Amino acid sequence: xxxxxxxxxxxxxxxxxxxxxxxxxxxxxxxxxxxxxxxxxxxxxxxxxxxxxxxxxxxxxxxxxxxxxxxxxxxxxxxxxxxxxxxxxxxxxxxxxxxxxxxxxxxxxxxxxxxxxxxxxxxxxxxxxxxxxxxxxxxxxxxxxxxxxxxxxxxxxxxxxxxxxxxxxxxxx
Amino acid sequence: xxxxxxxxxxxxxxxxxxxxxxxxxxxxxxxxxxxxxxxxxxxxxxxxxxxxxxxxxxxxxxxxxxxxxxxxxxxxxxxxxxxxxxxxxxxxxxxxxxxxxxxxxxxxxxxxxxxxxxxxxxxxxxxxxxxxxxxxxxxxxxxxxxxxxxxxxxxxxxxxxxxxxxxxxxxxxxxxxxxxxxxxxxxxxxxxxxxxxxxxxxxxxxxxxxxxxxxxxxxxxxxxxxxxxxxxxxxxxxxxxxxxxxxxxxxxxxxxxxxxxxxxxxxxxxxxxxxxxxxxxxxxxxxxxxxxxxxxxxxxxxxxxxxxxxxxxxxxxxxxxxxxxxxxxxxxxxxxxxxxxxxxxxxxxxxxxxxxxxxxxxxxxxxxxxxxxxxxxxxxxxxxxxxxxxxxxxxxxxxxxxxxxxxxxxxxxxxxxxxxxxxxxxxxxxxxxxxxxxxxxxxxxxxxxxxxxxxxxxxxxxxxxxxxxxxxxxxxxxxxxxxxxxxxxxxxxxxxxxxxxxxxxxxxxxxxxxxxxxxxxxxxxxxxxxxxxxxxxxxxxxx
Lengths: 173, 543
Known about the structure:
A: mainly alpha, two-stranded antiparallel sheet, disordered N terminus
């Protein structure tokens, strides 16, 4: 674990180099404290690692589906080839300034940061399963989008049967 | 151009109304052809489109328009098919595909209350219908038996026979609302074409909570089922047949329908009787498109009333947080209403309204709100669960009075087939606005009784549309102020009938489909009797 996210940006792209690394290697003490469950998570490269780390911070979940993470990451990169660099920069910013997730968006908006769209894009990807906006928006996940998972003890995603006829008359919890 | 096809009855539009009257004709032994502008689409395709949609709250997203028969869409950007002349935009949504717009309705299958038929006589506003509630009662029953309607008897609409089904089981949230609002308000179970038991081979509701835009199990009735039933009865249904003109003979009888296929090859269909049932916008559009030397204003339009008196149900709403966990999203989407403001002497002064509670899951909406606020980390889950459990919404469903200046005309813009687009002229008048203002005290009282906090009223001056397109083909006794007579026959053409919600002279406070269907069934029985086609059974609801 380093105090700064200062690893060379091109390391993961060098041919012949084993690129997998542990997420812990790109976190600081502060960010590691936000997502202690993820420290031993293995990622393909530092770009994906930054995405996964920021995802974990934004999502606030104890686990993230690694298969879905890959699909969301690929979709976000397909929309913006600079996304990996921006995710890296965002992680660096959180690492160095120890920004509370709850204040992250306000800080970026207030400072008119060029990174301000990154957390929202990541949040929409994980919470709604949707990547992109306007005519380019597309659904990557539905029933495993986190907003469905978070309420899954009470609700089913629309189009999924709640239960047998009348099962909804009972008090939910 | 040769007549390629001929039928006794030619029906334009395969929605719930067109398909049902076509089925009646076929069951009586007639040859019947339906021309449908849009394609065939299966329920499974629509469900898959919904689940894969990036705009799940946009109920049109599973229904992309066909290039050869567009319908209006507004997201992610407007396709500008419907031209809005204003002053208030009338953003109608409807679906041009086999089965029509009820693929994505809430299945509200209300009858009018009896006084809705006489608001001019009773309250001095609007117009009276050319017949009364009692005349329509057997056809309401027939419509309810065809669709499979469940409901409770305390909705202000008297009936000769019981509902086909018991009311759908009340969701917990609605029970709590009902319990906490009594005695100030009586909350009633909505009358819906939704199964509370297996009915006509379709299952009972399983609470999929996607009634709009698609019931994935056909527990609610829709036009796709009506079209299927029509074909089973022997109707020939031609999809992708975009009728762009009706021709007439020298006597003014309609002689043929001309349609474009997707390659814009024109086809001609001859018939003895024509029924235009292409919805409250496309039907008047077709009549206007059919102008000729003999009928320069279009068919059925010597009175210049085609397309006028456009009505719908505008809504304003209140969203708030209740003081207990209710968890909307369990069971069907739209289960309960308050009907105490549907009728009364106040109708002389302001619009009546029904108050409607949604049971649509709040999860996606709350998620979008939290993302917009930048709520991340642990707090997101806590806040999402709070909103999903506590948020309630109540809206009004306001009556609009007929006004000839509210209308559908032909635009000077053309659609991709080169056919003039429909254009809307619409506004919210003082009568409706005063109804909205009156409803605000109900909104506040309901929130108070539910221990509401964080009250969020819809933006003042903005009215959501409910897609209950009425009035544009109004029936009436006076040919100078209406398009068709009480049997929905065009005043100007002896073999042209109109069917659908467009013929309704007023819109009342309830969703228009059952009214449109019941009136169309009354028309169908009349046509069969008049044309002496086969055996003419009494409506199943009579006697």
